[in-house]
Write a structure and sequence with these properties.
Length: 662
């Protein structure tokens, strides 16, 4: 007999992620359901915002939102929280700092870890027994109130579900690992220790996880190796080290620090491809003709010894000068990278390349200046060979079949753009005179590349680049291989950064087993893809929040000053302005514009339009503003629009019309 269908009033259990609003109401979105499930505050029980939960839900009527109750927590978004301590005689309470409702924690006196009344601390949830009114916690560390930036960064890290420190057992395990290469293991690897090998990284990098080797062959071809630190040799499945790496899933890069996925013993010592040190790697080695045609690819475990550590700036200087240390070798690698880059864009890849804003920081992490980082040939050289290696590994695994079954594998996928998002963008670009064909995915890519080329150096460049990026789907990990639209690849994965990304470790393990003749089938692979994708998004959110904090801190001494900016975003409640000089973004509220007119949001035109005066604030427009406030706690800049004489003359007219309307 088949399964019985649930009756309309019968409770069923589902799994999803809980979102709690500021009012305390909860909502759970469940895959496959068009409507989320409403959870009233008294039914949230021991769950927090962002937790993956089991919900007992009564089936709602057709098209109606169901209500439910949280009956279990599968996975907590956060294990640690930042907040303040309130002492009592024999115990204490911890009040979390959060915009979303979180109950106070009960802290026993023996778990205070030296915290005093009013201290800002990091606390860990250690239990919430059924029937207890409050969760129980313990203080992990007391934050130094004298260092404002350090406190803010730790709070951002923790709020996004990452831990500041590694558990002691994980650190202990990493310290026991030896850096001496096992001789028997060495025999099983292809030896590149005598082949010219270099690393090219940022000037402040300590974890060198990729290297490039070059060897000219007798037939005139080149053998170029992409050598990746063999992290999976040290991080074994099922160990505390592996479990912690999976839990974090990626390193988090903040303006003043890196929160690593792996302890520094591994990332900066054992696996870092430092000069003149023999290291185990996993390699993708290509035999390439001078015209860029790849005639052979080898994948497998290897051993290398880097001859030279270059910074991007050093390599860029050598390329531009046409001379310098290892110019002939670096020049040859760069020639091939140029060929691969041109072929990639000709094959449908999209050439999005934005300027990165970074802060010059003092010893306490406070911003003292701004640096604009642009992608140059030295960066593109490395990028093209990393893309080549990632694609080669994905192609190899994709071809492996058994009984018409594919290997469950964490592909890096990127879906085609949403037509509904593209239509207003294409119409908006048309107002600047740019034609945009949205007929099919290939035409969209061609149109994007032509637009990005034509718009370079023009006033509308920033707005059209930003809007173009926003129309794109977000890349993620999945076993469902739909290809990578933005790169123009049918098969793609992440193989080249296992020190800072857990999916790369999974790829190394699968590749190793397949090369040995196996056919690994991990039934939880899609679940792992979902988890690592979610952690990547959390890391990006932490990075955005930290950059915003530094922006606000940088602008604090400019409150009251006037400056020029460009409208970088528009909504019904105001518009965002990015200052031209400081590259910092803040908001002009629609409430502050009410003296001039009643403004309405025109989504298709990306603008706010005055109902009476016709005054328009459109994305990409240059405006003059005054900085009203710089709030580090909210990580928010507030601007006031300063009208020109023409706008001032319209103010009284708008005011009269507003009064009549009242």
């Amino acid at each position: 007999m088949g399964k019985k269908k649930a009756k309309a009033n019968e409770a069923v259990s589902v799994k999803g992620v809980l979102e709690i609003t500021r009012s305390g109401m909860g909502f759970v979105m469940v895959p496959g359901r068009s409507l989320d499930i409403l959870i009233r505050p008294n039914n949230i029980n021991d769950a927090f915002d962002g937790d993956t939960v089991i919900v007992k839900v009564k089936q709602g009527g057709q098209g109606k939102r169901s209500e439910g109750e949280v009956v279990g927590v599968v996975h907590r978004k956060q294990a640690e929280f930042v907040g303040k301590i309130q002492l009592n005689t024999h115990f204490a309470f911890f009040t979390p700092s959060s915009e979303r409702p979180i109950p106070d924690f009960f802290i026993r006196s023996e778990n205070l870890n030296g915290a005093k009344e009013g201290d800002k601390v990091v606390a860990q949830l250690i239990g919430w027994r059924k029937g207890d009114r409050k969760p129980e916690g313990r203080v992990v560390s007391v934050l130094d109130a004298r260092n404002e930036v350090d406190m803010a960064m730790k709070e951002i890290i923790i709020q996004n579900g990452f831990q500041v420190n590694f558990p002691q057992e994980v650190l202990g395990e990493s310290e026991k690992l030896t850096e001496v290469l096992d001789k028997e293991e060495l025999k099983r690897r292809r030896d590149f220790r005598e082949v010219l090998t270099v690393t090219i990284d940022p000037v402040d990098a300590k974890d060198f996880d990729d290297a490039i080797s070059l060897k000219k062959l007798d037939d005139g071809n080149f053998e170029i190796g992409v050598h990746i630190a063999d992290v999976s040799h040290f991080v074994q499945p099922g160990t505390p080290l592996d479990e912690e790496a999976y839990k974090r899933s990626c390193s988090v890069y903040l303006p003043d620090r890196v929160v690593p996925m792996l302890p520094e013993r591994i990332s900066n010592e054992l696996c870092s491809l430092r000069p003149n040190e023999e290291k185990f790697c996993f390699s993708a080695v290509f035999t390439i003709r001078p015209n860029g045609k790849i005639v052979d690819t080898w994948l497998g475990p290897s051993a290398i010894k880097s001859d030279r550590r270059f910074t991007y700036e050093e390599v860029q200087s050598i390329i531009e000068a046409g001379a310098g240390e290892l110019y002939e070798e670096l020049g040859q690698i760069n020639k091939l990278a140029r060929i691969f880059r041109e072929e990639r864009f000709a094959g449908g890849a999209i050439n999005f390349s934005s300027i990165e804003v970074r802060f010059l920081l003092d010893a306490e992490g406070r911003p003292r200046g701004i640096i604009l980082k642009e992608s140059k040939e030295a960066h593109q050289l490395i990028e093209e060979f990393m893309l080549l290696a990632n694609k080669a590994v994905a192609n190899y695994i994709h071809q492996k079949k058994k009984n018409n079954q594919s290997i469950p594998f964490p592909y890096r996928i990127h879906d085609v753009p949403d037509q509904e998002k593209l239509k207003p963008f294409a119409a908006f670009a048309g107002k600047f005179g740019y034609k945009f064909n949205i007929g099919n995915p290939r035409a969209i890519a061609t149109s994007f590349n032509q637009l990005l080329k034509d718009v370079t150096g023009k006033p509308e460049q920033l707005v059209l680049e930003q809007l173009g990026i926003r129309t794109m789907a977000k890349a993620e990990y999945s076993t469902e291989n739909i290809g990578h639209y933005g790169l123009g690849f049918e098969n793609y994965c992440h193989f080249t950064s296992p020190i800072r990304r857990y999916p790369d470790i999974m790829v190394h393990r699968i590749l190793r087993e397949v090369l040995a003749g196996g056919f690994p089938v991990d039934k939880k692979m899609e679940e792992k893809c979902d988890h690592t994708s979610e952690r990547e998004r959390a890391a990006m959110e932490a990075e955005r929040a930290a950059n915003k904090y530094e922006q606000v801190l940088f602008m604090q001494d400019k409150v009251g000053e006037e400056m020029d900016g460009i409208i970088s975003g528009v909504s019904s409640f105001g518009f965002w302005v990015e200052t031209l000089e400081e590259k910092c973004e803040g908001m002009v509220s629609v409430k502050d514009l009410s003296d001039y007119d009643d403004f309405r949001h025109d989504e298709a035109d990306y603008s706010l339009v005055g109902l009476h005066t016709g005054r328009k604030f459109r994305m990409g427009d240059t405006v003059h503003v005054r900085l009203l406030a710089a709030n580090t706690e909210k990580r928010q800049l507030d601007f006031e629009w300063i009208p020109d004489n023409g706008d001032e003359s319209q103010k009284s007219l708008a005011g009269k019309k507003n009064k009549k309307k009242k």
